[in-house]
């Protein structure tokens, strides 16, 4: 697996593999990513099942943050998808029109990396993305 990763790194020098655990983007500590199973489908999981943690509802997410990688196992934290107002969404597609950004959570999942065929890194700017400022209309 290491040889495969090194080959990918040589072909895709701007890829995120080497930076997942220690991002190099100034002011950001998270590189969000998507995982694809061996059939090409997006991997998803759930956060806050039962609604016991904080004030948010249970949600489904396809967005993750790497916490630890050891051999073929990884601990991933589930990133909470939010709309432009910061409300929790259950997002199963990255192009969902209501999807605006991501929030870090304490919900984690252990995965066997041999079950996946691809990873797609996303912009670190999606995490804790500020709500856009609305332009004030001046009536003259």
Automatic annotation (TrEMBL):
<dbReference type="InterPro" id="IPR019593">
    <property type="entry name" value="Spore_coat_protein_Z/Y"/>
</dbReference>
<keyword id="KW-0946">Virion</keyword>
<dbReference type="Pfam" id="PF10612">
    <property type="entry name" value="Spore-coat_CotZ"/>
</dbReference>
<protein>
    <submittedName>
        <fullName>Spore coat protein</fullName>
    </submittedName>
</protein>
<keyword id="KW-0167">Capsid protein</keyword>
């Amino acid at each position: 697996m290491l040889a495969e990763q090194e080959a990918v790194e040589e072909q895709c020098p701007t890829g995120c593999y080497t930076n997942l655990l220690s991002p190099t983007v100034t002011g950001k500590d998270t590189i969000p990513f998507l995982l694809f199973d061996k059939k090409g489908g997006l991997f998803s999981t759930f956060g806050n099942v039962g609604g016991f943690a904080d004030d948010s509802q249970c949600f489904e997410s396809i967005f993750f943050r790497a916490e630890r990688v050891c051999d073929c196992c990884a601990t991933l934290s589930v990133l909470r998808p939010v709309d432009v107002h910061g409300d929790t969404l259950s997002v199963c597609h990255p192009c969902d029109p209501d999807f605006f950004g991501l929030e870090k959570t304490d919900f984690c999942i252990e995965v066997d990396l041999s079950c996946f065929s691809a990873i797609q890194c996303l912009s670190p700017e999606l995490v804790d993305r500020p709500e856009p400022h609305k332009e004030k209309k001046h009536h003259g």
